[in-house]
Design brief:
mainly beta, about 5% helix, five-stranded antiparallel sheet, glycoprotein, rod-shaped
């Protein structure tokens, strides 16, 4: 559970309520100076951003206070690779794409038989895409441009 707390030195007369907003959108009022988010409901789209707490009563609003919350998201494959079989023909293009989304940007590490990729294979980093504060990382395997058919054959 995440508890955002807002307090005032003088609660006013009549006593202040607290208005909560995120990125300018109203999130409701509370009598107490806190706003609770269940950890299981925490999301990048729903909770990441600038939160503002404003004490308020019938006389008017007090000085607001703000906090910027950054929500992280574990990496998730956009397309599962483990169920795919890729046959790379040495005379044709090798083209295998791995797309992963997360926050911060996930790292993609390609391996060949549990170790380093052979020199005849190159990883191309395509432009990362930010969508709703989540970052999609695309890494593609291709034949190295200077590799020969004989070198590819021995891989």
């Amino acid at each position: 559970m995440i508890k955002l707390t807002c307090s005032v030195t003088d609660s006013g007369n009549p006593q202040a309520n607290f208005k909560w907003s995120k990125d300018g959108m109203d999130k409701g009022h509370t009598n107490q100076g806190y706003y609770t988010i269940s950890a299981g409901q925490l999301s990048v789209s729903g909770h990441d951003g600038l939160w503002k707490c404003t004490p308020s009563n019938v006389i008017g609003d007090g000085e607001p206070d703000t906090i910027n919350i950054t929500v992280y998201a574990k990496p998730v494959f956009i397309k599962i690779l483990s169920n795919q079989t890729v046959t790379a023909e040495i005379q044709n293009d090798l083209n295998v794409l791995c797309s992963i989304r997360g926050r911060p940007a996930p790292d993609v590490i390609w391996q060949y038989k549990g170790g380093q990729l052979p020199d005849v294979v190159t990883v191309i980093s395509e432009s990362d895409v930010i969508n709703n504060k989540l970052i999609t990382v695309n890494r593609r395997l291709i034949w190295s441009t200077d590799s020969t058919l004989d070198q590819r054959r021995t891989t």
